[in-house]
Structures are given as structure tokens and as C-alpha cells.
Specification:
single chain; 327 residues; alpha+beta; four-stranded mixed β-sheet; two-stranded antiparallel sheet; disordered N terminus; membrane
Length: 327
């Protein structure tokens, strides 16, 4: 039997699911726990706004430049269709690209129970739950809004971590949902690929049209400007991606009250990466910006180009939070 949409989840739930949520809420209150008072991370929000503003400025200038070589209406239509499709189907595209499959409560009861309980504490709608069948121990969140979110974990992660560590990782991913940074990163990442496609378009089809499109000089200028735009976008997105990981780590500590569990999980995941087959790492490397720890194939990456802050900095920040909790 299915009821109307639940205020808490925003989704249609069975009576059994609603009962479980009420039970979790009762147990939390009985044990003296409270829903966390989520404080906005002004640093993260400021960086998200700045990133989107700078990207918008760069792309407006880029489109204005391209309009000299192509129909402005064509370019706007291209961008609108591309952006709309990527935004509304981002969760499905990410699930498809990673090989993740949605799992029911019957298939993964413990995972669903854990996520439901953490959502009650965080005051979040319960996301769609998915699993990726890979030895790479990792997790990610995606989706355009909290009500359209997906949280996925790999089988490697579930086998490697104990319950407390798994809860800390899931709380980290739910913090991305709460902060809405996953949606901003998704939009920003997809915007940056427009320049790449324009470069390919100009190379394969020889330009955009008009008298100047047949000019090799004009084509080279378009190609160079497109590369510059892509590089600027790349650096802006990487900077945002690194900061949002710090924010999600703090969110995990706030939700669970156990930053030490996340420290332990990060160390385990990082240590296990070295033993994962290179082929498995390459299959998911394109999703590094969304993972809790990047699935790097090679050695250290320049900090300016990394999707994540260094492990040392993350652990130091979490240890500081742990000391604040203890004292």
C-alpha cells in the first residue's frame, strides 16, 4: 500500500517505510539525540557563487566571441539543450557511467536502514540508494537537488569498512546533498565541457559558417580561445571541488559526532587503493570529483589540479574537530 507524498522525504512511501522513519525518530529522541542544527557554510556558499559567477562571465564572453564565427542563435540553442539535458538527467548519467544500480530495501536492508537513520538526524529526504559492483572502495552523491539525490557506495567499500566507518562515509556524502554542492559541481563540470565540444566541432567540421569560417586563421583563434576557456573552467572547478570536501568532512562530524570514524575510514580507503587493480581504477577515474577519495591511477597530483585536498590536510582538520568535541 502506498500513501501520499511524505513531508519529510518528499517521496511516496509505503506504510512500512513511514513506520520505520517514525521509529527512528522516536529512538533518537528517547536516547537524547537531536536533529543536528545545520549551519550554513558561508565559505562554501561564497565559493559556489563565485565559481558560478566567474564561469558565467567566462562563457558569456566566450559565446560573444564565437558569435563572430557562428550564428548566435545556434550557439545559444546548443548550450541550452546541452545544459538542460545534463542537468535533468545528471543522476541517471552518473549511475550509467559508473555502472551503479539502484538497490531496494530488500536487497540491502542494512544500507537502507543506516541511510534512513542518518537522514533523520540531518533533516534530509532519503535519497535513492545505489551500489557499484567494484573492488574500488568509494562512495559518491549526485543529483540536482536533495529530493532528486542519489547516494552510491561500492561493494569494495562495504566489505572494507566497519559499521561506524561506513556511517561516517555515508554522512559525508549526505553532507554534499545538504550543502547542495553536488548540483553546483555538476552544472559547472558540464558547462566546462562545452568548450571541449566546440574544439572538436571546429576540428572535425572545419569551422562554424560564414565568410570567416573558411579562414584557417579564424579557426585557429577559435580553437585557442576554446582551450583557454576550458583551462580556466577546469581550475575553477578543481578549487571548488577541494573546498567542498572539507565542508562535507565537517558535515560528517556534525551528523555522527564521531570525526575519528571518518579519519579511520579515509585511512582505510586510501591504503586499500594501492592494492586495487589499475584497470578497476581507470574505469571510475572520471568520477574522481564526486568520490570521497579520488581513484588515482598514478602517483601524487599537483595540488592545483587535484579534485581533493591532501589526505594529511583532511585528517588534520578532522583531528581539530575531534579535539573541539572532547574539550
Amino acid at each position: 500500500m502506498t500513501g501520499r507524498k511524505d513531508f519529510f522525504t518528499g517521496k511516496k512511501l509505503t506504510l512500512s517505510e513511514k513506520s520505520k522513519i517514525l521509529i527512528y525518530q522516536y529512538q533518537l529522541l528517547r536516547d537524547g539525540a537531536k536533529m543536528v542544527e545545520w549551519k550554513k557554510d558561508l565559505g562554501l556558499e561564497g565559493r559556489m557563487l563565485l565559481t558560478m559567477f566567474l564561469l558565467a562571465a567566462v562563457y558569456i564572453a566566450f559565446l560573444a566571441f564565437l558569435s563572430q564565427y557562428a550564428s548566435a542563435s545556434f550557439m545559444l540553442l546548443f548550450v541550452a539543450i546541452f545544459m538542460g539535458a545534463q542537468y535533468y538527467y545528471s543522476d541517471k548519467l552518473v549511475l550509467w557511467s559508473t555502472g551503479a544500480h539502484v538497490v531496494s530495501e530488500a536487497e540491502e536492508p542494512k544500507l537502507h536502514e543506516t541511510i534512513t537513520r542518518l537522514c533523520v538526524i540531518a533533516g534530509l529526504p532519503k535519497p535513492t540508494v545505489a551500489v557499484v559492483n567494484t573492488s574500488v572502495p568509494n562512495a559518491f552523491a549526485t543529483g540536482r537537488s536533495p529530493k532528486k539525490a542519489v547516494v552510491a557506495v561500492t561493494t569494495g567499500l562495504m566489505h572494507k569498512l566497519d559499521q561506524g566507518e561506513l556511517e561516517a562515509v555515508l554522512a559525508h556524502e549526505l553532507s554534499h546533498v545538504k550543502n547542495r554542492d553536488m548540483a553546483v559541481l555538476t552544472i559547472a563540470s558540464f558547462i566546462s565541457t562545452i568548450a571541449f565540444y566546440i574544439v572538436r566541432y571546429s576540428l572535425y567540421f572545419g569551422g562554424f559558417g560564414g565568410d570567416r569560417r573558411n579562414s584557417n586563421g579564424g579557426l585557429i583563434v577559435v580553437w585557442i580561445i576554446s582551450i583557454i576557456v576550458w583551462v580556466l573552467s577546469f581550475l575553477l572547478i578543481r578549487a571548488l571541488s577541494r573546498y567542498r570536501e572539507f565542508a562535507a568532512d565537517r558535515g560528517s562530524a556534525l551528523i555522527t559526532g564521531q570525526p575519528a570514524q571518518l579519519i579511520s575510514a579515509l585511512r582505510k580507503i586510501s591504503g586499500t587503493m594501492a592494492n586495487v587493480p589499475t584497470e578497476d581504477l581507470r574505469k571510475v577515474e572520471g568520477m574522481n570529483a564526486f568520490f570521497i577519495i579520488p581513484a588515482a591511477v598514478s602517483g601524487s597530483v599537483m595540488s592545483l589540479l587535484s579534485t581533493h585536498p591532501s589526505m594529511e590536510k583532511r585528517i588534520a582538520a578532522l583531528e581539530k574537530i575531534q579535539r573541539e568535541i572532547e574539550y
